Amino acid sequence: MFLSSLDFKSGADFGYNYGISAKHMSLPSREIVISPKTFGVIDLAEIIRFRELFYIFSWRDIKVRYKQTLLGVIWVIFQPLVTTLIFTVFFGNLAKIPSGDMPYPLFVLTGLVFWNYFSNSVTHAANSMVENESIIKKVYFPKIILPLSSLLTGFIDFLINLSLLFLFAIATGHIPNLKILYLLPFSLLVTVFSSAGLGLFLASINVKYRDVRYILPFFIQILLFISPVIYPLSILSPSHKIYMAFNPMSGAVEAARGIFSGTPPDFSLMIVSAFSSLLILFTGFIYFSKTERFFADIV
Amino acid sequence: MKPIIEIAKLSKKYRYGVSEPYYSLRDSLSNWITRPVKALLSSRKSGKGEFWALKDISFNVKKGEIIGIIGRNGAGKTTLLKVLSRITPPTEGKAVLRGRVASLLEVGTGFHPELTGRENIFLNGAILGMSRVEVRKKFDEIVEFAEIERFLDTPVKRYSSGMHMRLAFAVAAHLEAEILLIDEVLSVGDTAFQQKSLGKMENISRSGRTILFVSHNLGMVKKLCQKGIIIKGGYSSKLTAVDKLINRYQQSGQAFSASIRLDRHNLEFMNFRVNGISIKDEPEVYPENALEITAEYKGSGNKSYDLCLSFALRKKEDYTLMYYSHNHLENIRHMTGKKGNISLRFHLPHISPGKYTLEIQIWLDGHLSADGFELGDIVVASSPAFASNQSFAKFPAHLLIASQWRIS
């Protein structure tokens, strides 16, 4: 028997319909409708239903990363500390890059903590689809969970590094200014939004174009140089500064430094960066939702 | 009561080009530049290069029914399950599934070699759609079923392929879902574990769950399912009682595969012969004689596999399994991208005469890559040692043992 369109409530065309169970007590409460239209819409309720998978993927990545490592979690702080040391010697002491009213090591470590979270998240999110190809092809789940769980994985490292940063600041006598501690969530959100957006976008094109994998490290490195991580924005003329703000990491890094120096960056800089990060998030999300339906066919 | 699964005119179109999945940005750019030129030179129709992996599939399944889906490799069986489990979208048509769906397209999806057995149970369970609470509740049962208690905290990469498979199947078998979509994953592990798995499947089926079951293994379909469909070239038959279905499938002559292509592994097995006679010509063999099965393989690419083959003889009338050769010690190691021959020799015991179907299973690196492919029929002649077939005809015996009598 063919189904006529009368058999369906029009509302059931997308995802799930919870309304059926009252009429048919013996039937389970969930109804899944599969049609060409069903796909391509990311359903928030669906993501929440699969939230455990979100943790599980992060948990897996963290577990796997530290299996068979000698130093284990120490690796997390090893990288920013060594980078800070090298940057301080070469950029701070030899090249004499100015660092405002804070010492160069604290200046560059603040930048690196946020930058590393950004670059790790983007890299892992971008590769998440390809790396989990076998799962995508064999099991259904909202695919957006994979790149987003990369952000959660990186968040653990970020928290450890952030504590290290605060310890370092306090130890060197730069007590964080509690009045402007609101800059911390600002920096964090801008970092999360922009890495999520960029990660989603790259994850999606990585499925189709394998070049992404090769371009990515190069791309991230270029981004580092156009972000004020090893230099302050103040070395640029005010008219150029605002262009830099379109790179949301400019706002994130400068704002984070404000916590220790006591002076928040220009309000305009923060607004432009915030707006830019939201735009990146939105673009990445839309592009991902438009393309995810065919991932299993082409990955 | 509404059927638990309603499928109406479900169709899925693929493009041929998609079979080569890795695009590079360079190809895309050069395509983009040359496309207008190509378009001028040749007026290709847009419909070209496309095929329907599924076309107008329609059937309804009632709650508690177990539906077998049979058909040759590439007929569209797996595509159907993928569409129904929402892994890939249909191009046309609609399906409604009323209940929680769990699909099992592969055993051990997402298993991570670095993680321990215990960790993988939680990971795999979550990927298959179980909650942590559910996994914890079933944990002991899963471990017991998989028989891996002692290795629970060992990384899975140190497991034997048998243990790996058992654990993977055990997790899957404890899924709680109203609708199960299963793609030939049953015959894992050794024979004893296969029996156990089959028993578990029968239990699941009796528990009122609805199952769509894809298999090449007609014996298993017959054992588990009441009804089924045949899929051929993307089209499906009507839902039919399973005995009738299997008869029709065999009569259509479509049941036998001339060669087995494992596209994902770039491997092809072909030219199966029994004592030098092509399997297509229904070779006749004699009990108590040596029997040699040979095949050729061709590989492209340079990957090598740990290959394990097993052959089975199944009685044509009732699907009794009569002979089964499977031994991990017989593994042929490191079969690389080249041509070669494989042969298996054994002594055919005195089994009852008649027609038998020769089946093959192929394992690559411990993963079941082809299950229960029917290669063709073999005629087991009546033995000269026994004057006639009388003894087999009168008693429903399958095996005669030569014995000596003495009167003193």
State the CATH superfamily name of the largest domain in chain B. P-loop containing nucleotide triphosphate hydrolases
Shape of chain A: globular
Provide the number of structural domains of chain B. 2
Largest interface: A-B, 49 and 58 residues
What does this structure look like?
Chain A has 299 residues and is mainly α. Chain A has 2 domains: 1-38, no CATH class; 41-298, no CATH class. Chain A has helices spanning 44-49, 51-66, 74-94, 104-131, 133-138, 145-171, 183-208, 211-225, 238-244, 248-261, 267-291, 295-298, and strands at 16-17, 31-34. A two-stranded antiparallel ribbon of chain A has the order 1-2. The longest helix of chain A has 28 residues, at 104-131. Chain A is globular, with a radius of gyration of 23 Å. Chain B is α+β, with helices and mostly antiparallel strands and 408 residues long. Chain B has 2 domains: 52-251, P-loop containing nucleotide triphosphate hydrolases (Rossmann fold); 259-394, abc- transporter (atp binding component) like domain (Coagulation Factor XIII, Chain A, domain 1, Distorted Sandwich). Chain B contains 9 helices and 21 strands. In chain B, strands 3, 5, 6, 7, 8, 9 and 10 form a 7-stranded mixed β-sheet that branches. In chain B, strands 14, 16, 17, 18, 20 and 21 form a 6-stranded mixed β-sheet that branches. In chain B, strand 6, helix 6 and strand 7 form a beta-alpha-beta unit. In chain B, helix 3 (117-127) packs across helix 5. The N and C termini of chain B lie far apart (74 Å). Mean pLDDT of chain B is 79; it is low at 17-22 and 42-48. The chains are: A mainly alpha (299), B alpha+beta (408). At the A-B interface, strand 2, helix 2, helix 5 and helix 12 of A face strand 1, helix 1, helix 2, strand 4 and helix 3 of B. Chain A: This is Transport permease protein. Chain A: The chain crosses the membrane at residues 70-92, 104-123, 144-168, 180-202, 214-234, 267-288. Chain A: It is found in: Cell inner membrane; Cell membrane.
